[in-house]
Write a sequence for this structure.
């Protein structure tokens, strides 16, 4: 589930940061993009796609549309549209379905859906540049849907707002449930990601679908971690969503999210490349430039991976840069350290070794430790 940094000289924009990936579909593409930019990745699929090739609801909807052709068909996902055609072929009614679809107005949510439509030998009537279902709905309502029979291919979850708006506009809506989102069969990776979010050892969690976001929160609730996870996502852990629809389950719980202008994986990664380095703490210490990232520190542009205990100490020192922090306060910052202040000395020795420059942290005899902050004269820093 995890990756480690390859070496100490990587200076990619995401080097030193850990990103959680909740995607089930196209996860490999997203992970490759993140790793190429230096990130460590926790892959924890928050859901799985269950095709409904043998589902009675899909068969019934397909037969209903063959028997009474729709005026318009809205295709929301490429995998869903392909799955629908493949399921119809499996039932021996694929050609009948395609014949019906050729006589309808086909709307595609985005370019991938357009590709799936054309691969089936069909041609779409229109597709929005934004890949937004909201734009599709706005266009349909602007043109008028009263008295029209509309087939809506669902994309893994019900679309009540969409369906209700069409029905309020006077349309007859037939929903086509091609596949469903289900919890992952192996919950271990998702649980480990939730633990990392709570512990603050992950810097961002990426979401590429609303069901994935809802599933992660649902699992957190099942484990009694919901409030702690939400607190982390409202604070130091960035929730990065591929688009505004994906963000809705998080925003409903008061989580501020970030999303790119274009709702694609590439722009999502670029967003992370901008947001995470902007959150890093940069200090001038002992004549060196120190940039504190998620699980590593850039010291004069050389990446130095730091163990979790060392990062806890460093963050405690950086909260009051240049000031002495007592061993007792540092002990409280150490995860699971107990009451023995010797644990601080051990962790501090490892931290100094990891940084490769012992003079960055000064020992103040009988008092504690401080960062050897470069400061102008009369700055007032404690010594």
């Amino acid at each position: 589930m995890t990756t480690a940094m390859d070496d100490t000289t990587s200076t990619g924009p995401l080097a030193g940061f850990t990103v959680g990936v909740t995607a089930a579909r196209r996860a490999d593409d997203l992970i490759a993009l993140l790793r190429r930019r230096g990130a460590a990745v926790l892959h924890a699929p928050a859901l799985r796609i269950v095709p409904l090739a043998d589902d009675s609801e899909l068969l019934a909807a397909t037969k209903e549309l063959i028997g009474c052709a729709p005026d318009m068909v809205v295709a929301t996902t490429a995998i869903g549209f392909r799955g629908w055609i493949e399921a119809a072929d499996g039932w021996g009614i694929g050609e009948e379905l395609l014949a019906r679809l050729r006589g309808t107005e086909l709307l595609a949510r985005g370019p991938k859906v357009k590709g799936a439509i054309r691969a089936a030998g069909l041609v779409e009537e229109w597709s929005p540049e934004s890949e937004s279902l909201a734009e599709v709905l706005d266009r349909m309502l602007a043109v008028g849907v009263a008295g029209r029979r509309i087939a809506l291919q669902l994309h893994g979850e019900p679309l009540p707002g969409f369906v209700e708006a069409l029905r309020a506009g006077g349309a007859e809506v037939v929903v086509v449930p091609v596949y469903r989102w289900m919890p992952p069969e192996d919950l271990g990776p998702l649980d480990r990601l939730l633990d990392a979010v709570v512990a603050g050892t992950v810097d961002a969690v990426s979401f590429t679908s609303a069901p994935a976001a809802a599933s992660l929160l649902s699992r957190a609730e099942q484990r009694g971690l919901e409030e702690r996870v939400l607190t982390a996502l409202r604070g130091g852990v960035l929730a990065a969503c591929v688009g505004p629809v994906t963000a809705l389950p998080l925003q409903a719980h008061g989580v501020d999210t970030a999303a790119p202008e274009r709702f694609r994986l590439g722009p999502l990664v670029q967003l992370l490349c901008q947001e995470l380095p902007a959150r890093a703490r940069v200090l001038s210490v002992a004549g060196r430039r120190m940039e504190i990232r998620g699980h590593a520190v850039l010291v004069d542009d050389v990446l130095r991976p730091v163990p979790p205990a060392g990062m806890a100490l460093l963050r405690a020192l950086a909260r009051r840069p240049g000031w002495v922090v007592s061993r007792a306060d540092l002990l409280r910052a150490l995860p699971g350290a107990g009451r023995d202040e010797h644990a601080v000395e051990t962790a501090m020795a490892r931290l100094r070794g990891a940084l490769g420059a012992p003079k960055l942290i000064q020992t103040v005899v009988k008092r504690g430790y401080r960062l050897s902050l470069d400061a102008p004269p009369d700055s007032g820093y404690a010594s």
In short: The two ends are 44 Å apart (CA to CA). The chain has 15 helices and 18 strands. Residues 1-9, 377-383 have pLDDT under 50 and may be disordered.
